[in-house]
User: Fold these one by one.
Assistant:
Number 1:
Amino acid sequence: MNKSELIAHIATETGMTKQSCAEAVDAVLNGIKTGLVNDGAVTIVGFGTFSVGERAARVGRNPRTGEEVEIAAARVPKFKAGSDLKAAVA
């Protein structure tokens, strides 16, 4: 399911317009993004926790030339599923 399919599903379930559902989905996604930037984690009880992880610097290889390349350390988004989500998928 992609974003537009999710919006259509929410509109069908709630009876809201697709435009208002799109605005709501965008607001939720922006809220999660802002929470990660400002606080480092966003927890939705039963659904899961979005967090920011650290990826250490490492040495990689250029697949074309085989040359070693330094890959810088980076902050990366992570998601850990909550118990309700795990149970629904199982």
Number 2:
Amino acid sequence: MLIACAVVFGGVLGFQAFVGRMMRKAMASAPPPVQTVSTARAEALDWQPTLHAVGTLRAVNGTDLSAEVPGIVDEIRFESGDDVRTGQVLLSLRSGVDVARLREAQAAVDLARLDYQRNRELAPKGLVSQAALDTAETQLRSTEAQLRQQQEGVSRTSIRAPFGGRIGLRVVDVGQYLNAGARIATLQALDQLLVDFFLPQRDLGLLSPRQHVTVAVDAWPGETFRGEVIAIDSRVDAQTRNVAVRARIDNPAHRLLPGMYVSVNVDAGARVQHVTLPQTAVVYNSFGDTVYLVEGSGDKLRAKQVFVQVGPTRGDQVAILSGVTAGATVVSAGQIKLQDGTPVRINNTVQPANNPAPDPPDEPGRRK
């Protein structure tokens, strides 16, 4: 009985082993499954070499307006956010006493001038001495100096715009007492702005005044603002090995404001041509970056893995310095399923992004 059971059990095991061996043999001889992928055509496109940095905007002219002399605010002639012109009176302090002293000084000048003119007419006739004439002239000059001093004092009770620009938020009220130096509001010239940024010393040879610059800011997604380099610092920071660069940005619509954090791109040299692919086409590995080419025709398409040397990126695109030629068909999505020689089927219904300057995704609460 035991012998019969052993024979049966051994037969079952042998049959299972036979079936497994035949299945493995069949699978080994079966062709690999066809994988569906998306593809893109490698294109030779012009690239503008650029230097990238981040910086902060500041006004060409910007200041905190303040009172030169203490006093009580008598009149405010601006509103927060107003655009003002050079020399425009923005605020007046109570000046009744100063004006009265100015009139007194003017009267003293008028009297001294009459006295001097009278003495000058009588001196040639010998009716007054030269000393009296000199005293009258000195008195006239003294009263004129006092008048100018009083005029200056009265003028300081009026705060004027030192340059044209936009007023910020008003922080004073009529009737308020101001100490000398107290801030009234901020004034910024907005037609052009400056952006200061830093680049590593290795980029010094690529920098020169008048180079074109573009800046982008998250407040205005998808838009760039143009300008040019106006100055490069005369030294490199010994700690960071970076050099400070300043550019001037045109801002005719006043959409950029001082203090904004911006992304800066500096055009560095002539345009060059690179074979260009979507960034999703490149498989990045520690042993080398690769892409999959699609070779063959009809229903006999196969993936071929090739090593590539990648260059700069822009938006959704990457430059390929070697390994792929223009016109090649490259897998842009679905590489995880592939090996060298895998048969493929192309389905480009959905394509990965391939925009050199993509708009950022919509943010909650942002209006288009």
Number 3:
Amino acid sequence: MDTALEPIAPHHEIVSVMGRKIKIIRAGWDNIVRKHPDLANKFNQLVETLIDAETVMISKADPLVYLYYRKVSGRKYLCAVCKHYDGKGFLITAYYTYRPHGARTVWKST
């Protein structure tokens, strides 16, 4: 089985930690995995990041783009980048990073 094509439906809609419905399109996820092969077989980790983020920040470039961060190991975070509009949203990209960054924090776990 191609690792980019994880066993997910054509699209998923989940509710994020901020109460936003986030749509994840299979073709979009496959494209993310092609650009970031280290995310192959990490779809569940992505979903966990959206529903149980440690920090959510607004992008410096676009106030409608939210960065969901969750620590996955040691100092490494998974960042799920989503665009929010009209109470809904969609996944733009995802990547690993060692430091959350954004314009400002809008949500933090307690």
Number 4:
Amino acid sequence: GEVQIRGPTVFKGYHNNPEATAEAFTADGWFKTGDLARWEEHGYLTVCDRLKDMILVGGENVYSAEVERVLAAHPQVLLACAYGVPNELLGEVVKAVVVLRENSDNHEPNEALRCLRSFCASHLADYKRPALYEAIALSELPMTGSGKIAKAEL
């Protein structure tokens, strides 16, 4: 579920923005962080993804971070991004955008994407697998000021 926090060091709201404050806090004062997490053995909390990055495929939750970890584990992938795109039947499907390594064995992007599709099929459940794949140049990958991939710009 979503991580929520409350305490004396948590800010009380957004300056001159009551609408954003109301959306960010529960009725009883808990701040909604936007992080999705689960409790592990021995009481550890593991953050899985950001709520805004979760993809809903046919009623199933897909964590983009999980798909991105699998994509990034492929030896031909330098950088990877997974996000949801609209689909009439399923609501959303996963799209993978990757930057391929220049020194990879396979310089043909279409063949590399076929290999990546097969790799994902052996590491992800059907509903988590990207339905769409795209290889782009590193210079085409939009980045935020903090060095993260700007998914909203893809």
